Amino acid sequence: MTTEPEVPAYRPPTLTDVAKLAGVSVATASKAINGRGEVRSTTRVRVLEAAELLSFAPNALARGLLSGRTGTVGLLTSDLEGRFSIPILMGAEDASGAGQVSVFLCDARGDAIREKHHVQALLSRRVDGLIVVGSRTDPRPPLAGNIPVPVVYVYAPSADPADISITVDNVGGGRLAIEHLLACGRRTIAHITGEAGFQAARDRAEGAAAALAAAGLRMVGDRPYFGSWDESWGRAAAHMVVEQHPEVDAIFCGSDQIARGVLETLRDFGREVPRSISVIGFDNWEAIAADSRPRLTSIDMNLKHLGEVAGQRLFAAIDGAAPSSEEFPGRVVMRESTLPVG
Amino acid sequence: MTTEPEVPAYRPPTLTDVAKLAGVSVATASKAINGRGEVRSTTRVRVLEAAELLSFAPNALARGLLSGRTGTVGLLTSDLEGRFSIPILMGAEDASGAGQVSVFLCDARGDAIREKHHVQALLSRRVDGLIVVGSRTDPRPPLAGNIPVPVVYVYAPSADPADISITVDNVGGGRLAIEHLLACGRRTIAHITGEAGFQAARDRAEGAAAALAAAGLRMVGDRPYFGSWDESWGRAAAHMVVEQHPEVDAIFCGSDQIARGVLETLRDFGREVPRSISVIGFDNWEAIAADSRPRLTSIDMNLKHLGEVAGQRLFAAIDGAAPSSEEFPGRVVMRESTLPVG
DNA sequence: AACACCCCCGAAAAGGTTTTAGGATGTGCT
DNA sequence: AGCACATCCTAAAACCTTTTCGGGGGTGTT
User: Which class for A296: exposed (0-12), middle (13-18), buried (19 or more C-beta within 10 A)?
Assistant: First the structure.
């Protein structure tokens, strides 16, 4: 009871162990392992063999303490479901390339206190930079306090235009959707979307309206049907649209979930998709869009690419560059719900 | 060009800075801040004020280098969509309590090479422990190499029974589902589920069969309908079931996605849910289950709780305890698809 | 044989924190 | 006055790696 559990406590091998085994000094061992400095090739292999034998892995803490660089970046998300964060995380990791850099994800759960705490935790562990992922596209307040490392905001831009933000071009996305429907031969198009309080909903609607105007057309009902992002709203709104405007021949939905609801109601009404009416969604959420009946055409926001770019910009900023914000277009992922009429 | 960019390079304040400002030695400053050792109260407040003023945050690298503890655990996931990992991450974070410990997530994408790389990266950063999350419940090979820190496997158990694994009781989950349907007054129950290659599918089917046998009943068709985890299979299998066994009055689905497909086919056949037939899913995936028509009763695996327990077990192991594996039951989340007949 | 020179290696310092052991100061008692 | 002792603080070592600088030894040249 008086002393500790007395576990043998396997101690990870240190550079000193390697050097001792190889019969050289720690300085030489370090140089041999990192390929720096002048060291005879025979010595180098001797050190490398010793390191291999002990399965030595350098202590990143000591290294970071000395160099000021830890080769670590934090990815801070507020996206509960991880639907946006995971692809962005993957992209950021890919951008880190050969693997000198590790990306660690923390979930702030949309809670400012928790976010502050995670930022502190990451900074005290001396991350080289931060990626902040929002759960919606509305501008978000920049991280509080003066952050001593570069920060890149993804998906949700920072409210401070001086910050680096990598975002989706939702206006362009709305335009893409409409242009696709037009290319399929549709002319009488309605737009059912989520809450008007979301920038994403307003932007997509704006792009849709612009594309229609450019073709000399108007939206069915003259304005978007704002509601919520879920299936029930899709069902309810589709009901209204079909009853009030039976001539409608395409519906652009602000989310794939809305589109699922729309599909269901159209089926109830006996409106065949895509023969009689086309439907296009937004997000390209595989679990929702890829296995509906018919399978759903959707706008993909290329989140993984967004993450890649965010990673690249962050690494550039860490290396002293001053990158700027950027906005990326989505792309149409075509499935059966918008087969061209013909 | 000859020298570095010459940035002022905001240097984070060190303990030395604080000590200097407070007019004490670093040792005293350390003790004052950590509340350790004998230090006069007037001195303590002087130090704390100085720390506050400089917004000093201790360098976790230096601290970890010395103590051998970093207050960091790595959560390694193979779950592409993050559908399982995020709740588990949240649970593990909650288990870490006051916030001395941070949990960092890495995504191995089900790739052994990438997994190895991430383990190396985490270990070189001297995490105190690892949580490994699998994407399916089949036992997985334990982490390769001798890991010098405790490891807890969640969702997917380690193939080595000596390891600590925290898993879902899928047999019990299957039993729960059937018992719920029986309690709703159903007697003629079919089971449509995913690939027989998945332990989860086999376990749930086993539990279902056992619960039916205990009630003196048999499964419709005498065996589960194994197929795939998606909606199309749900539609196809429901078609078969309803045609071959029109007397069926309940369907237990191995996933919520399958259940969605089943619901759709039942609607095509004019079988009213839940009046004429009940449907129960598995996973309680909100996006799928919470907004279908009717809304879907489902088995929830309590993943967040799983993460909490995993965190607790890991922290216990880090503190020298020798915790054991554990299996947790799910729970029925009731919605409209299984309203009792009456 | 003496010298210049190159190649390789080792000693030491630095980075920020915690802990241990000991030193300085002041108080109470004989 | 001298001593024991409690209280508060400091100096220094330790953690592990990287880098700089200098030294030792060998080789080629005159």
Answer: buried
